[in-house]
Design goal:
- The chain has 134 residues and is of the alpha/beta class.
- The chain has one domain (10-131): Rossmann fold (3-Layer(aba) Sandwich).
- The protein is 39% helix and 15% strand.
- It has helices at residues 23-35, 50-63, 90-104, 115-124, and strands spanning 10-13, 39-44, 69-72, 109-111, 129-131.
- Strands 3-2-1-4-5 form a five-stranded parallel sheet, with helices on both faces.
- Helix 3 (90-104) packs across helix 4.
- The longest helix is centred in the last third of the chain and has 15 residues, at 90-104.
- It is globular.
- The protein starts with 9 loop residues before the first strand and ends with a strand.
Length: 134
Amino acid sequence: MVGLTSRRMVLGLDVDDTITAAPEFFALMTKAVRRAGGRVCIVTSRGNLPEVVEATRVELEGYGVEFDEINIIPDKEDEYIPCPHDDLDWYQKYLWQKVAICEARNVDVLFDDDPKVVQLFARYAPGIQVFQPV
């Protein structure tokens, strides 16, 4: 179609209770996305200390999950990505950082188990398709 450009999929994945709930599934999915030229961005709320990032990297590699980057949302309020939504409470602002990261990384599809995260995406990033594992 004229005027449309093709762009490869960017897949966003949470770790705890998402990848860890079905590691074989996400290993296959991430391999398929990357083989098709897409990117995989891990977006998690684990502590953002260097040793946690490294432990997460090792854990994901152990599952066979392929990824291009690990994004851990800041867990100290003075390091938060600034949230423009004053109507959100502190915890929602904390979780909203996943929205900001996914928008900045051009994520097309996100898998996340947290219903609060799913609600934030529905409200503030409706263009990102979100799936919640059960």
